[in-house]
Amino acid sequence: MHYILEILPSLLSGAGMTLKIFIWTLIGSLPLGLVVGLGLMSNIKPLQWLLNFYVWLMRGTPLLLQLIFVFYGLPLIGIVFPRYYAALFAFILNYAAYFAEIFRGGLQSIDSGQYESARVLRLSYVQTIRKIVIPQVIKIVLPSVGNEVINLVKDSSLVYVIGLGDLLRAGNVATARDVTLVPLVLVAVIYLLLTAVTTFILGRIEKHYSSWK
Amino acid sequence: MLELKNITKQFGSRTIIKDLNLTVKDGEILSIVGPSGAGKTTLLRCITGLEKVNAGEFLVDGKAFDPYTNRSNDSVIGVVFQNFELFPNLTVMQNITLAPTMVLKQSANEAQEQAQVLLDRLDLTDQADQYPFQLSGGQKQRVAIARALAMKPNVLCYDEPTSALDPNLREEVEKLILGLKADGMTQIVVTHDLTFAENIADDMFKVETNKTK
Ligand SMILES: Nc1ncnc2c1ncn2[C@@H]1O[C@H](COP(=O)(O)OP(=O)(O)OP(=O)(O)O)[C@@H](O)[C@H]1O
Ligand SMILES: [Mg+2]
Question: What ipTM was predicted for this assembly?
């Protein structure tokens, strides 16, 4: 018990880094994913090709490779990101591609009649998207987005590879130093707590959207 | 008064409507009838600005207007879709007040008071806070009518208003449409139900299958 209290501060500060990456990735990639998703549905062919290529590239290569590429690769051609920003950059681009694909599916399932009835009421495109399309899409994609969000909690541990002090690194350092399993078990417990809280919040959001069908 | 002059509509090389002329007098009901595939829905979609015509012009009270690009608050065409196309994420009240607040820039209070009058008029007083999935077919149709009327249209159009409803509701729909006529509303009703058309119409327009297709 004494030992746990001793290592807890460093684990919690690692968990803080994990949370920061988690939250900023969501804040960056959800809106970006929505915009890319709308772009994927546009009639402008070159834009479609470009966005499809981006989604294909991000989903077809490992996130770990993308992280290493941004942090160790890009400096070779003169683009240097600090560790933390390299992580955010790679995570946001990667997750936006997954979200874009999910949003595209959601957008495709909105009946054209909804756009037409908005049109005859003379709502603008932006008003239609905001007031009618987005709420319906959110309801449809919530389960799949939720899965990705839970994945993100765990994926954030990949920043380990570029030397960021996240939760996993904190646990690993303590285990190596003190030759005991306790830190790793604690790390697992903290991850479980994080995913439990995330699941709970997602559940509340789904409940909020359950008043209509 | 709404006038169509020499309207032609083609899909690719197929001519669906050719040199069509028709007039709808103020406060009257025009029924558009004809066999399946003749182009009734297409004609209505041209009038309501959902399809671009290839030739011809539209006049409202003698003034030319293009329903496809129309953005002004005069010469408004309202539409009640075959399957109503209510917005499932909005309550009945919100369905009706959305466009008046966002497009006509009415205050929330003003829009709600006006919507309440329409709800009472259309026997929907108790439905204001319900969502579309909680309504019967007939109620959905009346909400769609209220939503269109809230934009103060010059003409209200229906595509097959009896087709999505229980057959024994036909008489109700007749009463409803004739009631709106008594209130002074100009209406266009597309239907393939001749008896229904004869019961409500001041004037009938027959769309023939175009032989030169
Ligand atoms: N978007 C479109 N592209 C190509 N052809 C179309 C399109 N919409 C309709 N058509 C064709 O136009 C013709 C008229 O269709 P429309 O839906 O107007 O008929 P209708 O009179 O409403 O028939 P119904 O009584 O069955 O509803 C049909 O042959 C149809 O295949
Ligand atoms: Mg039709």
Answer: 0.93
A43 contacts chain B (CB < 8 A) = no
- B window 120-149, beta carbon within 8 A of A: 131-133, 147-148
Domain residue spans of chain B: 1-76+153-213, 86-151
**Which segments in chain B show pLDDT lower than 70?**
73-75, 210-213
Using the Cβ of A120 and the Cβ atoms of chain B, whether some distance falls under 8 Å is answered with: yes
Ligand 2 centroid distance, CA of B36 (Å): 7
* Chain B residues closer than 8 Å to A213 by CB: 88, 131, 133
Chain A residues with CB-CB distance to B131 below 8 A: 211-213
For A155-163, what is the mean pLDDT?
A: 92
- Residue by residue, what is the 3-state secondary structure of chain A? CHHHHHHHHHHHHHHHHHHHHHHHHHHHHHHHHHHHHHHHCCCCHHHHHHHHHHHHHHHHCCHHHHHHHHHHHHHHHCCCCCHHHHHHHHHHHHHHHHHHHHHHHHHHCCCHHHHHHHHHCCCCHHHHHHHHHHHHHHHHHHHHHHHHHHHHHHHHHHHHHHCCCCHHHHHHHHHHHHCCCHHHHHHHHHHHHHHHHHHHHHHHHHHHHHHCC
Probe residue for ligand 1, chosen from B36, B42, B211 as the CB with the greatest number of ligand atoms within 8 Å:
B42
Specify the ligand 1 atom closest to the Cα of B192: 25
Provide the CATH topology of domain B1-76+153-213. Rossmann fold (3.40.50)
| Average pLDDT of the segment spanning A79-101 | 96
| pLDDT reported for residue B63 | 87
From the alpha carbon of B39, which atom of ligand 1 is closest? Answer: 18
Taking contacts as CB-CB distances below 8 angstroms, the residues of chain A near B99 are: 121-123
A2-211 is classed CATH 1.10.3720.10: yes
- For chain A positions 145-164, those within 8 Å of chain B (CB to CB) are none
Please give the distance, rounded to the nearest whole angstrom, from the Cα atom of residue B62 to the centre of ligand 1. Answer: 29
Percent with pLDDT over 70 in chain A: 100
Model pLDDT for residues B114-150, shown as the tens digit of each residue: 999 999 999 999 999 999 999 999 999 999 999 999 9
pTM of the prediction? 0.88
pLDDT tens column, A107-136: 999 999 999 999 999 999 999 999 999 999
Q: Residues A23-43: what's their mean pLDDT?
A: 95
